[in-house]
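Hi L., both proteins are below.
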Amino acid sequence: MLNVASYLARIGYTGPTIPKADTLRAIHRAHLLTVPFENLDIARATKIVCEEDAFLRKIVDRHRGGFCYELNGAFAALLRGLGFEVTLLSARVPREDGTETPEFDHMTLRVDLDEPWLADVGFGDCFLEPLRLQTHAEQLQDGQKFRIREEGKSCHVERAQPDGSWKGEYTFSLISRRLEEFAPMCHYHQTSPESPFTRKRICSRATREGRITLADRKLIITRLGNREEKVLESEEEWQAPLQKYFQIVL
């Protein structure tokens, strides 16, 4: 199903495609600026099948977005099609009570070049370019600092906060995974009332100046650090920014 040229056109990428770090960074950023993180099919009870071909059809052919399994699953296929060496990794997300979600709650990617990288186009508001898979080194991008902290057999992606503290984004291990291993959690997130994805609709993507998000009936636009919110009073009023900012018509 993979058509590399169509996928690159979908994300508006026209640069070099040689498998090297500069290419990875540029394609990663282009993906996040064009393909939204969204769960709209879950709200419409449209089943999401944990298969690479289904991800590609949705994102490339139908110009939609998706959540982590879809976005990173499709992105992994694109990178492999360009000659990159990609490994699927399982990740867990911290809860407010200090515990973590189960294994396979999130999918992230390891990309091996001269050095290993952590790539992720499916976590929403996070790093725009891949992180070097180095532990404890602070990595600055777009005015934000990230680091990967090693603890036992786990690695923690953390982001620096304004007060100087570090907030955990997610925890992952370096064990190679197969796509089918993520299928049970992909099903869970579509069906369980405990899943955050069954509780509200969301559609969000990065912009060059910040981020645009539709969260249920609220439109949130962040531009150069300034945040604007607008409450949308009707379904028709919700559909308009969905088409304007994400080019999605349901």
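That was the first. Here is the second:
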Amino acid sequence: MSENQEVIPNGGHRLRSLQLVPHSPGLATKDFKSDQEVRWCPGCGDYAILAAFQAFLPELEVPRENVVVISGIGCSSRLPYYVSSYGMHSIHGRAPAIASGLASSRQDLSVWMITGDGDALSIGGNHLIHALRRNVNIKIMLFNNRIYGLTKGQYSPTSEQGKVTKSTPYGSLDHPFNPLSLALGAEASFVARSVDSDRKHLQSVLRAAADHKGAAFIEIFQNCPIFNDDAFAPIKEPKSPGLIRMVHGEQIRFGPDGSLALRWANGSLETVLAASVPESELIVHDATRSDPSYAFALSRLDSYDFTHTPIGVFRSVERGSYDDAMAAQIDTARASGTGDLANLLAGNDTWEVV
């Protein structure tokens, strides 16, 4: 029996839940680079995300054979080809289902899911929300470029209303999704956002997601230089006035010299000049609040002109994971002698057709 297994009642073994503890496998960034030629359009934000991800993976201190990268369909979903680990380029929108099954049956694995705004929020929307509400122990990286890149420039579920594209020559009529609000509405236990070009921030968010037990949802603003170039340019300026960097336990300050802050007013968050209100009214960021309404209010600060754009960890709360609950249920069934699959299939609720 290997060291990551344990004996369970009535015989057999069950893999222990993955613990991110140091065991010095001696891995480096180069060990997670595959021999495949990276093929995205020049200037694509996917390059920066891939580099940040490959550089982060050694920090997991998990053997490569225990790291799995699952993707759906889209430009972002090519990423598993470029990571030297186990992985799967699956089918459109179904990556959450495949990743959920794998994480539930193999708790020794670190399972990462790569998806895009089209793959996850259009055909895959149903699978995404249920993976989040079940709190399966998977880490979901959603690359949001607000456009369909792989199919050459149609509007996506996150494209702004009025967006002129090949499929909407007179402007999109759809109201867009806010991915963070959607994840919070599905009771996700970990929700965060970062930006492709901010490697340090992105890796800090990935680290927090990896340490979280349960489903972790990370939206990453990602530039598409061909079909939606500079969509996020206003928040990539060195001192973007609308970029709100949230740090747990610290006061939320932004704008010129940190002169702006947030406070509650009439049930929602509002921007104020920090010097004009009592210190006690200013919001100190708490990502661990059990009530998701605070994180939801932060997500609603978003505006398509980037007047306010929060990044960081919005919510990180402890909640029982689906895979742990499933493993415990299997153990209970085996201990009671009722966990026989053949008997279950041939139980009372069967009939014979003649």
